[in-house]
Write a structure and sequence with these properties.
The chain is α/β, with parallel strands linked by helices. It folds into 2 domains: about 150 residues, HAD superfamily/HAD-like (Rossmann fold, 3-Layer(aba) Sandwich), CATH 3.40.50; about 70 residues. Helix content is about 45%, strand content about 10%. It has 10 helices and 7 strands. Strands 4-1-5-6-7 form a 5-stranded parallel β-sheet, sandwiched between helices. Strands 2-3 form a two-stranded antiparallel sheet. Helix 1 packs across helix 3 and helix 7 crosses helix 8. It is globular and about 50 Å long. It starts with a strand and ends with a helix.
Length: about 230
């Protein structure tokens, strides 16, 4: 392995057509029995963080058993919504070509660092035919920790352990659409590429510290150059 690419999913590779928030709210209502009193913007946040933040807004005590129940319920609701995601969601411009191009570069390993729980990540990638090039065994997922930077660290450690290598920061690339993605990369000393296909503008991604900002993934050659494998 020469390069590890850590993809965000929602609004970087795909747009789930609003399905992600609806699924989250349905799972929350089932577990808690009420609507959340308020939620932060979902962009770049982990499902773990969103659930515990909503509980705090309720003044509801947070415990590991309740969090585990919610995450299991969220997985079930995501599976049930598979066809809805397929019908209403889309692959963003250039995403499929970018993933396919990287899969052809010797030594490049692709996985995800995502706010989605592991099951949701697998389902969304499978629905849009983006799963095969991704090694989900070494990803970082939104059920593992509230803090995105921790997910980057976990993915790095898993990849290094699986491949028996130690990767310098310039050989690891996070690609995402929010300042949270950029922050997670920078806190781990790895390369951050922002893609302005989500809620953040190109200027906001630059301000967050992204090493490179692309308007979209439509220019595959520009992405490969930014990663350093062109």
């Amino acid at each position: 392995m020469k390069c590890l690419v850590l993809w965000d999913i929602d609004r970087t590779l795909i747009n789930a057509g609003g399905g992600g928030k609806a699924i989250f709210l349905a799972a929350y209502r089932e577990v808690v029995g009420a609507e959340p009193p308020g939620l932060p913007d979902f962009g770049g946040r982990t499902d773990h963080y969103l659930f515990t933040a909503a509980l705090a807004g309720h003044g509801h005590p947070v415990d590991d058993q309740l969090v585990a129940l919610f995450l299991d319920t969220l997985a079930a609701h995501t599976e049930a919504a598979r066809e809805r995601i397929r019908e209403h969601g889309v692959v963003l411009a250039g995403a499929a070509a970018a993933v396919a191009a990287l899969a052809e570069v010797p030594g490049v390993v692709q996985t995800v660092v995502t706010g989605n729980i592991r099951d949701a990540a697998r389902i969304k990638l499978a629905v849009f035919d983006l799963l095969d090039p991704m090694d989900l065994d070494i990803g970082g997922y939104g059920d593992e920790d509230p803090v995105r930077a921790v997910l980057v660290r976990l993915a790095r450690e898993r990849a290094e352990r699986k491949h028996g290598v130690a990767l310098s920061g310039d050989r690891i690339v996070v690609i995402g659409d929010t300042p949270h993605d950029i922050e997670g990369a920078l806190r781990n000393g790895v390369t951050a590429i922002g893609v302005a296909t989500g809620g953040a503008t190109a200027d906001e991604l630059h301000a967050a510290g992204a090493h490179t900002v692309l308007e979209s993934l439509a220019d595959t050659a520009a992405l490969l150059r930014a990663i350093g494998v062109a």
